Amino acid sequence: MWTLLGIAVVVAGFAFRFNPLLVIAASALVTGVAAHLGPLEILAAFGKAFNDNRFVSVVFIVLPAIGLLERAGLQERARILIARLRGVTVGHLLLIYLAYRQIMAALGLVSASGGAAQMVRPLLAPMAEGAAQSRLGTLSDAVRYRIRALAAATDNIGAFFGEDIFIAMSSILLIKGFLEQNGIFIQPLQLSVWAIPTALLAFVIHGARILLFDRALHRDTGKTDAPQ
Question: pTM higher than 0.85, yes or no?
Answer without folding.
Answer: no
